[in-house]
Design brief:
Chain B: This is GOLD domain-containing protein. Chain B: Keywords: Coiled coil, Membrane, Signal, Transmembrane, Transmembrane helix. Chain B: It comes from Trapa incisa. Chain B: It is a single-pass type I membrane protein. The structure holds 2 protein chains of 2 kinds. By secondary structure, chain A is α+β, with helices and mostly antiparallel strands. Helix content of chain A is 43%, strand content 29%. In chain A, the strands form 2 sheets. In chain A, strands 1-8-3-6 form a 4-stranded antiparallel beta sheet, covered by helices on one side. Chain A has a 4-stranded antiparallel beta sheet with strand order 2-7-4-5, with no helix packed on it. About 8% of the residues of chain A have low confidence. Chain B is α+β, with helices and mostly antiparallel strands. Chain B is 44% helix and 29% strand. In chain B, strands 1-8-3-6 form a 4-stranded antiparallel beta sheet, with no helix packed on it. In chain B, strands 2-7-4-5 form a 4-stranded antiparallel beta sheet, with no helix packed on it. Chain B is elongated. Chain B starts with a helix and ends with a helix. The chains are: A alpha+beta, B alpha+beta. The interface between A and B is large, with 69 and 72 residues. β1 of chain A pairs antiparallel with β2 of chain B.
Chain lengths: 214, 211
Protein backbone atom coordinates (compact mmCIF):
# COMPACT_ATOMS: atom_id res chain seq x y z
CA UNK A 1 0.00 0.00 0.00
CA UNK A 2 2.70 2.45 0.96
CA UNK A 3 4.83 1.70 -2.12
CA UNK A 4 1.85 2.50 -4.33
CA UNK A 5 1.15 5.82 -2.64
CA UNK A 6 4.71 7.09 -2.65
CA UNK A 7 5.06 7.62 -6.44
CA UNK A 8 1.74 9.48 -6.47
CA UNK A 9 2.87 11.78 -3.66
CA UNK A 10 6.19 12.40 -5.40
CA UNK A 11 4.31 13.17 -8.58
CA UNK A 12 2.15 15.77 -6.86
CA UNK A 13 5.11 17.30 -5.04
CA UNK A 14 6.99 17.55 -8.33
CA UNK A 15 3.95 19.16 -9.88
CA UNK A 16 3.86 21.62 -7.01
CA UNK A 17 7.57 22.34 -7.27
CA UNK A 18 7.27 23.05 -10.96
CA UNK A 19 4.12 25.08 -10.63
CA UNK A 20 5.83 27.28 -8.07
CA UNK A 21 8.91 27.56 -10.23
CA UNK A 22 7.07 29.91 -12.57
CA UNK A 23 9.95 32.33 -12.59
CA UNK A 24 9.64 35.84 -13.85
CA UNK A 25 11.94 36.83 -16.67
CA UNK A 26 14.65 39.20 -15.64
CA UNK A 27 14.70 42.78 -16.73
CA UNK A 28 15.84 42.74 -20.34
CA UNK A 29 16.49 45.48 -22.86
CA UNK A 30 16.01 45.45 -26.59
CA UNK A 31 16.75 48.07 -29.19
CA UNK A 32 13.57 49.07 -30.94
CA UNK A 33 14.04 50.16 -34.53
CA UNK A 34 10.49 49.89 -35.75
CA UNK A 35 8.49 47.19 -33.98
CA UNK A 36 9.81 44.72 -31.46
CA UNK A 37 7.57 42.03 -30.08
CA UNK A 38 8.09 39.76 -27.12
CA UNK A 39 5.90 36.76 -26.42
CA UNK A 40 5.03 35.46 -23.00
CA UNK A 41 2.91 32.45 -22.19
CA UNK A 42 0.13 32.80 -19.64
CA UNK A 43 -0.80 29.47 -18.08
CA UNK A 44 -4.05 30.15 -16.31
CA UNK A 45 -6.99 32.37 -17.13
CA UNK A 46 -7.33 35.15 -14.58
CA UNK A 47 -3.61 35.47 -13.92
CA UNK A 48 -2.34 38.94 -13.22
CA UNK A 49 0.19 40.05 -15.80
CA UNK A 50 2.22 42.96 -14.54
CA UNK A 51 5.36 44.69 -15.60
CA UNK A 52 7.01 47.89 -16.63
CA UNK A 53 9.12 49.31 -19.40
CA UNK A 54 11.44 52.29 -19.57
CA UNK A 55 12.94 53.91 -22.63
CA UNK A 56 16.66 54.28 -21.91
CA UNK A 57 17.76 56.88 -24.39
CA UNK A 58 20.72 56.63 -26.65
CA UNK A 59 23.02 59.63 -26.66
CA UNK A 60 21.00 61.89 -28.89
CA UNK A 61 23.10 64.99 -28.91
CA UNK A 62 20.80 67.49 -30.52
CA UNK A 63 17.23 66.53 -29.75
CA UNK A 64 15.38 67.15 -26.54
CA UNK A 65 13.23 64.64 -24.67
CA UNK A 66 12.30 61.51 -26.61
CA UNK A 67 8.83 61.74 -28.21
CA UNK A 68 7.74 58.36 -26.93
CA UNK A 69 7.22 54.70 -27.67
CA UNK A 70 3.90 52.95 -28.21
CA UNK A 71 3.22 49.81 -26.24
CA UNK A 72 0.53 47.26 -27.10
CA UNK A 73 -0.43 43.97 -25.50
CA UNK A 74 -2.32 41.55 -27.71
CA UNK A 75 -4.17 38.55 -26.33
CA UNK A 76 -4.04 35.15 -28.09
CA UNK A 77 -7.49 35.89 -29.51
CA UNK A 78 -6.03 38.88 -31.38
CA UNK A 79 -7.63 41.80 -29.56
CA UNK A 80 -5.51 44.34 -27.77
CA UNK A 81 -5.67 44.08 -24.01
CA UNK A 82 -3.58 47.10 -23.07
CA UNK A 83 -2.33 50.08 -25.08
CA UNK A 84 -0.14 52.98 -24.15
CA UNK A 85 0.93 55.57 -26.70
CA UNK A 86 3.80 58.01 -26.76
CA UNK A 87 5.34 57.48 -23.33
CA UNK A 88 8.93 57.14 -22.27
CA UNK A 89 8.19 54.44 -19.72
CA UNK A 90 5.28 53.13 -17.71
CA UNK A 91 4.04 50.38 -15.43
CA UNK A 92 1.16 48.14 -16.45
CA UNK A 93 -1.01 45.50 -14.90
CA UNK A 94 -3.98 43.57 -16.20
CA UNK A 95 -5.88 40.38 -15.60
CA UNK A 96 -5.46 37.90 -18.41
CA UNK A 97 -8.88 37.16 -19.89
CA UNK A 98 -7.71 33.80 -21.19
CA UNK A 99 -4.67 31.58 -21.15
CA UNK A 100 -2.31 31.42 -24.09
CA UNK A 101 0.53 33.25 -25.75
CA UNK A 102 0.40 37.00 -25.22
CA UNK A 103 2.26 39.41 -27.45
CA UNK A 104 3.91 42.53 -25.99
CA UNK A 105 4.87 44.96 -28.75
CA UNK A 106 6.91 48.14 -28.71
CA UNK A 107 6.49 50.47 -31.66
CA UNK A 108 8.94 53.27 -32.38
CA UNK A 109 7.22 55.86 -34.57
CA UNK A 110 10.47 57.71 -35.27
CA UNK A 111 13.55 56.69 -37.13
CA UNK A 112 16.10 56.89 -34.31
CA UNK A 113 16.54 53.51 -32.61
CA UNK A 114 15.70 53.49 -28.94
CA UNK A 115 16.61 51.01 -26.25
CA UNK A 116 13.71 49.79 -24.15
CA UNK A 117 14.27 48.00 -20.87
CA UNK A 118 11.27 45.91 -19.88
CA UNK A 119 10.12 43.43 -17.27
CA UNK A 120 7.08 41.21 -17.52
CA UNK A 121 5.75 38.98 -14.76
CA UNK A 122 2.87 36.53 -14.85
CA UNK A 123 1.58 35.81 -11.37
CA UNK A 124 -0.72 33.00 -10.39
CA UNK A 125 -2.46 32.63 -7.06
CA UNK A 126 -4.28 29.31 -6.59
CA UNK A 127 -7.94 29.97 -5.92
CA UNK A 128 -10.70 27.83 -4.40
CA UNK A 129 -11.21 25.92 -7.64
CA UNK A 130 -7.59 24.77 -7.60
CA UNK A 131 -7.87 24.00 -3.90
CA UNK A 132 -10.87 21.81 -4.48
CA UNK A 133 -9.21 19.94 -7.35
CA UNK A 134 -5.96 19.07 -5.60
CA UNK A 135 -6.20 17.72 -2.09
CA UNK A 136 -2.52 18.31 -1.36
CA UNK A 137 -2.94 22.05 -1.87
CA UNK A 138 -3.37 23.69 1.51
CA UNK A 139 -5.05 27.04 2.12
CA UNK A 140 -1.65 28.05 3.41
CA UNK A 141 -0.30 27.60 -0.11
CA UNK A 142 -2.67 30.38 -1.16
CA UNK A 143 -1.21 32.65 1.52
CA UNK A 144 2.32 31.75 0.45
CA UNK A 145 1.42 32.47 -3.17
CA UNK A 146 -0.01 35.86 -2.17
CA UNK A 147 3.15 36.63 -0.22
CA UNK A 148 5.26 35.63 -3.18
CA UNK A 149 3.24 37.85 -5.49
CA UNK A 150 3.63 40.78 -3.10
CA UNK A 151 7.41 40.27 -3.05
CA UNK A 152 7.35 40.05 -6.84
CA UNK A 153 5.67 43.42 -7.00
CA UNK A 154 8.45 44.87 -4.82
CA UNK A 155 11.06 43.33 -7.11
CA UNK A 156 9.24 44.68 -10.15
CA UNK A 157 9.20 48.17 -8.64
CA UNK A 158 12.91 47.90 -7.92
CA UNK A 159 13.63 46.96 -11.52
CA UNK A 160 11.57 49.91 -12.70
CA UNK A 161 13.47 52.25 -10.42
CA UNK A 162 16.77 50.82 -11.58
CA UNK A 163 15.84 51.32 -15.24
CA UNK A 164 14.75 54.90 -14.55
CA UNK A 165 17.96 55.49 -12.65
CA UNK A 166 19.91 54.29 -15.70
CA UNK A 167 18.04 56.74 -17.90
CA UNK A 168 18.67 59.53 -15.40
CA UNK A 169 22.34 58.65 -15.45
CA UNK A 170 22.42 58.91 -19.26
CA UNK A 171 20.78 62.33 -19.07
CA UNK A 172 23.34 63.45 -16.49
CA UNK A 173 26.24 62.23 -18.58
CA UNK A 174 24.85 64.08 -21.56
CA UNK A 175 24.45 67.23 -19.44
CA UNK A 176 28.04 67.00 -18.25
CA UNK A 177 29.33 66.59 -21.81
CA UNK A 178 27.23 69.48 -23.02
CA UNK A 179 28.39 71.79 -20.24
CA UNK A 180 32.04 71.14 -21.01
CA UNK A 181 31.92 71.13 -24.79
CA UNK A 182 29.49 73.99 -25.27
CA UNK A 183 31.42 76.33 -22.95
CA UNK A 184 34.76 75.45 -24.57
CA UNK A 185 33.20 76.09 -27.97
CA UNK A 186 31.87 79.38 -26.64
CA UNK A 187 35.35 80.51 -25.51
CA UNK A 188 36.85 79.55 -28.83
CA UNK A 189 34.14 81.40 -30.74
CA UNK A 190 34.60 84.50 -28.61
CA UNK A 191 38.36 84.54 -29.19
CA UNK A 192 37.88 84.01 -32.95
CA UNK A 193 35.27 86.76 -33.28
CA UNK A 194 37.37 89.29 -31.38
CA UNK A 195 40.50 88.53 -33.42
CA UNK A 196 38.43 88.90 -36.60
CA UNK A 197 37.28 92.28 -35.32
CA UNK A 198 40.87 93.36 -34.68
CA UNK A 199 42.03 92.25 -38.11
CA UNK A 200 39.18 94.08 -39.76
CA UNK A 201 39.93 97.31 -37.94
CA UNK A 202 43.62 96.99 -38.76
CA UNK A 203 42.75 96.47 -42.39
CA UNK A 204 40.62 99.61 -42.38
CA UNK A 205 43.66 101.63 -41.31
CA UNK A 206 46.25 99.96 -43.47
CA UNK A 207 48.08 101.99 -46.07
CA UNK A 208 46.99 99.80 -48.98
CA UNK A 209 43.40 100.93 -48.51
CA UNK A 210 42.54 104.54 -49.21
CA UNK A 211 43.29 106.66 -46.15
CA UNK A 212 40.35 108.99 -46.59
CA UNK A 213 37.74 106.27 -46.35
CA UNK A 214 37.97 106.14 -42.57
CA UNK B 1 12.10 4.69 -10.24
CA UNK B 2 14.73 7.37 -10.67
CA UNK B 3 14.39 7.15 -14.44
CA UNK B 4 10.64 7.64 -14.40
CA UNK B 5 11.10 10.50 -11.96
CA UNK B 6 13.57 12.31 -14.20
CA UNK B 7 11.36 11.68 -17.22
CA UNK B 8 8.43 13.12 -15.36
CA UNK B 9 10.48 16.14 -14.34
CA UNK B 10 11.55 16.66 -17.93
CA UNK B 11 8.00 16.28 -19.19
CA UNK B 12 6.64 18.73 -16.67
CA UNK B 13 9.63 20.96 -17.32
CA UNK B 14 8.79 21.27 -20.99
CA UNK B 15 5.19 21.91 -20.04
CA UNK B 16 6.03 24.70 -17.66
CA UNK B 17 9.26 26.04 -19.10
CA UNK B 18 7.44 28.11 -21.70
CA UNK B 19 6.17 30.35 -18.96
CA UNK B 20 9.66 31.14 -17.74
CA UNK B 21 11.27 32.46 -20.87
CA UNK B 22 10.86 35.22 -23.36
CA UNK B 23 10.13 34.45 -26.95
CA UNK B 24 10.91 36.68 -29.89
CA UNK B 25 11.12 36.45 -33.65
CA UNK B 26 14.20 36.71 -35.77
CA UNK B 27 14.07 37.34 -39.51
CA UNK B 28 16.72 35.73 -41.68
CA UNK B 29 19.72 37.93 -42.22
CA UNK B 30 18.87 40.13 -39.25
CA UNK B 31 20.43 40.56 -35.84
CA UNK B 32 18.68 40.92 -32.54
CA UNK B 33 20.40 41.76 -29.32
CA UNK B 34 19.04 41.41 -25.84
CA UNK B 35 20.94 43.04 -23.04
CA UNK B 36 20.78 42.75 -19.32
CA UNK B 37 22.41 44.72 -16.57
CA UNK B 38 24.23 42.25 -14.30
CA UNK B 39 26.34 42.96 -11.25
CA UNK B 40 29.85 41.57 -10.97
CA UNK B 41 30.51 38.23 -9.26
CA UNK B 42 27.06 36.86 -9.87
CA UNK B 43 26.09 33.65 -11.56
CA UNK B 44 24.17 33.86 -14.79
CA UNK B 45 22.54 31.09 -16.79
CA UNK B 46 21.02 31.30 -20.24
CA UNK B 47 19.17 28.80 -22.41
CA UNK B 48 18.17 29.42 -25.99
CA UNK B 49 16.43 27.28 -28.56
CA UNK B 50 14.70 27.67 -31.87
CA UNK B 51 11.04 26.76 -31.73
CA UNK B 52 10.06 24.14 -34.25
CA UNK B 53 7.43 25.67 -36.53
CA UNK B 54 6.10 22.27 -37.52
CA UNK B 55 5.04 20.18 -34.57
CA UNK B 56 6.14 16.59 -34.76
CA UNK B 57 8.38 16.98 -37.78
CA UNK B 58 12.13 17.48 -37.50
CA UNK B 59 13.47 21.03 -37.58
CA UNK B 60 14.31 22.38 -41.03
CA UNK B 61 18.07 22.22 -41.58
CA UNK B 62 18.32 25.87 -42.52
CA UNK B 63 16.99 27.03 -39.15
CA UNK B 64 20.21 27.78 -37.36
CA UNK B 65 21.37 30.78 -35.37
CA UNK B 66 24.67 32.19 -34.25
CA UNK B 67 24.88 33.62 -30.78
CA UNK B 68 27.50 35.63 -28.98
CA UNK B 69 27.35 36.85 -25.41
CA UNK B 70 29.58 39.83 -24.68
CA UNK B 71 30.16 41.97 -21.67
CA UNK B 72 29.94 45.76 -21.55
CA UNK B 73 33.69 45.99 -22.20
CA UNK B 74 33.59 43.70 -25.23
CA UNK B 75 34.85 40.43 -23.76
CA UNK B 76 33.09 37.47 -25.29
CA UNK B 77 31.78 35.00 -22.76
CA UNK B 78 29.95 32.57 -25.02
CA UNK B 79 29.96 31.92 -28.72
CA UNK B 80 28.07 29.31 -30.70
CA UNK B 81 27.93 29.16 -34.46
CA UNK B 82 24.96 27.82 -36.41
CA UNK B 83 23.24 25.87 -33.68
CA UNK B 84 19.56 25.42 -33.02
CA UNK B 85 19.72 25.30 -29.24
CA UNK B 86 22.19 25.57 -26.45
CA UNK B 87 22.95 27.08 -23.12
CA UNK B 88 25.60 29.06 -21.36
CA UNK B 89 26.54 29.69 -17.76
CA UNK B 90 29.26 31.84 -16.32
CA UNK B 91 30.11 34.03 -13.38
CA UNK B 92 30.36 37.66 -14.28
CA UNK B 93 33.72 39.30 -13.65
CA UNK B 94 32.61 42.83 -14.39
CA UNK B 95 29.34 44.64 -13.83
CA UNK B 96 27.51 46.31 -16.63
CA UNK B 97 25.31 45.59 -19.63
CA UNK B 98 25.73 42.10 -21.02
CA UNK B 99 24.60 41.61 -24.63
CA UNK B 100 23.34 38.35 -26.07
CA UNK B 101 23.24 38.84 -29.83
CA UNK B 102 21.53 36.44 -32.21
CA UNK B 103 22.30 36.32 -35.93
CA UNK B 104 20.13 34.47 -38.38
CA UNK B 105 21.77 33.39 -41.64
CA UNK B 106 20.23 34.44 -44.93
CA UNK B 107 17.50 32.17 -46.16
CA UNK B 108 16.02 32.00 -49.58
CA UNK B 109 13.01 32.74 -49.38
CA UNK B 110 13.34 34.97 -46.27
CA UNK B 111 12.07 33.15 -43.21
CA UNK B 112 11.24 34.12 -39.65
CA UNK B 113 12.37 31.99 -36.74
CA UNK B 114 10.86 32.06 -33.29
CA UNK B 115 13.50 31.81 -30.60
CA UNK B 116 12.90 30.95 -26.98
CA UNK B 117 15.41 32.60 -24.69
CA UNK B 118 15.66 32.24 -20.95
CA UNK B 119 18.23 34.36 -19.19
CA UNK B 120 18.52 34.26 -15.44
CA UNK B 121 20.99 36.21 -13.40
CA UNK B 122 21.83 36.36 -9.74
CA UNK B 123 19.41 34.88 -7.28
CA UNK B 124 17.05 33.33 -9.81
CA UNK B 125 19.74 30.94 -11.06
CA UNK B 126 19.41 28.74 -8.00
CA UNK B 127 18.11 25.35 -8.98
CA UNK B 128 15.37 24.69 -6.46
CA UNK B 129 14.46 21.28 -7.80
CA UNK B 130 17.92 19.99 -6.86
CA UNK B 131 17.66 21.44 -3.37
CA UNK B 132 14.30 19.78 -2.88
CA UNK B 133 15.46 16.41 -4.16
CA UNK B 134 18.68 16.37 -2.18
CA UNK B 135 17.47 17.27 1.27
CA UNK B 136 14.01 15.58 1.20
CA UNK B 137 12.82 18.98 2.28
CA UNK B 138 9.20 19.63 3.07
CA UNK B 139 7.26 21.57 0.42
CA UNK B 140 6.29 24.33 2.77
CA UNK B 141 9.82 24.74 4.02
CA UNK B 142 11.06 24.94 0.43
CA UNK B 143 8.54 27.65 -0.37
CA UNK B 144 9.50 29.64 2.68
CA UNK B 145 13.21 29.23 1.88
CA UNK B 146 12.53 30.63 -1.56
CA UNK B 147 10.70 33.59 -0.06
CA UNK B 148 13.60 34.20 2.28
CA UNK B 149 16.01 34.19 -0.67
CA UNK B 150 13.78 36.62 -2.52
CA UNK B 151 13.68 38.96 0.45
CA UNK B 152 17.46 38.95 0.83
CA UNK B 153 17.87 39.68 -2.87
CA UNK B 154 15.43 42.60 -2.53
CA UNK B 155 17.49 43.86 0.39
CA UNK B 156 20.72 43.63 -1.64
CA UNK B 157 19.07 45.37 -4.56
CA UNK B 158 18.05 48.25 -2.27
CA UNK B 159 21.66 48.69 -1.21
CA UNK B 160 22.73 48.66 -4.83
CA UNK B 161 20.13 51.26 -5.76
CA UNK B 162 21.25 53.39 -2.84
CA UNK B 163 24.87 53.22 -4.04
CA UNK B 164 23.86 54.22 -7.54
CA UNK B 165 21.84 57.12 -6.22
CA UNK B 166 24.87 58.27 -4.27
CA UNK B 167 27.01 58.16 -7.42
CA UNK B 168 24.35 60.07 -9.31
CA UNK B 169 24.21 62.72 -6.60
CA UNK B 170 27.99 63.14 -6.70
CA UNK B 171 27.86 63.44 -10.48
CA UNK B 172 25.17 66.10 -10.22
CA UNK B 173 27.14 68.07 -7.64
CA UNK B 174 30.23 67.96 -9.83
CA UNK B 175 28.21 69.16 -12.84
CA UNK B 176 26.82 71.97 -10.70
CA UNK B 177 30.32 73.01 -9.63
CA UNK B 178 31.59 72.81 -13.18
CA UNK B 179 28.78 74.99 -14.46
CA UNK B 180 29.49 77.57 -11.78
CA UNK B 181 33.18 77.69 -12.57
CA UNK B 182 32.64 77.67 -16.32
CA UNK B 183 30.30 80.67 -16.12
CA UNK B 184 32.78 82.65 -14.04
CA UNK B 185 35.54 81.62 -16.46
CA UNK B 186 33.40 82.68 -19.40
CA UNK B 187 33.01 86.15 -17.89
CA UNK B 188 36.78 86.32 -17.29
CA UNK B 189 37.50 85.19 -20.86
CA UNK B 190 35.10 87.81 -22.24
CA UNK B 191 36.64 90.64 -20.19
CA UNK B 192 40.21 89.59 -20.96
CA UNK B 193 39.52 89.32 -24.70
CA UNK B 194 37.93 92.77 -24.70
CA UNK B 195 40.89 94.17 -22.74
CA UNK B 196 43.36 92.58 -25.14
CA UNK B 197 41.47 94.05 -28.09
CA UNK B 198 41.53 97.54 -26.62
CA UNK B 199 45.24 97.34 -25.71
CA UNK B 200 46.21 96.02 -29.13
CA UNK B 201 44.24 98.65 -31.01
CA UNK B 202 45.60 101.46 -28.80
CA UNK B 203 49.22 100.46 -29.48
CA UNK B 204 48.38 100.01 -33.17
CA UNK B 205 46.90 103.47 -33.49
CA UNK B 206 49.72 105.01 -31.50
CA UNK B 207 52.18 103.34 -33.83
CA UNK B 208 50.28 104.67 -36.81
CA UNK B 209 50.36 108.10 -35.13
CA UNK B 210 46.59 108.50 -35.41
CA UNK B 211 46.18 109.00 -31.67
Amino acid sequence: MEARHRPAKLLVSIFLIWSFLVNPISSLSVTVNDVECVYEYVLYEGDTVSGNYVVVDHDIFWSSDHPGIDFTVTSPAGNSVHTQKGTSGDKFEFKAPRSGMYKFCFHNPYSTPETVSFYIHVGHIPNEHDLAKDEHLDPINVKIAELREALESVTSEQKYLKARDTRHRHTNESTRKRVIYYTLAEYLLLACVSSLQVFYIRRLFSKSVAYNRV
Amino acid sequence: MVRSLTFLLLALGTLFSVSESVRFELQSGHTKCISEDIKSNSMTVGKYSIINPNEGQPMPQSHKITIRVTSAYGNSYHYADLVDSGQFAFTTAESGDYNACFWAPDHNPPDTMAIEFDWKAGITTRDWSNVAKKGQVDMMELELKKLQDTISSIHDEMFYLREREKEMQELNISINDKMGWMSVLSLAVCLSVAGLQLWHLKTFFEKKKII
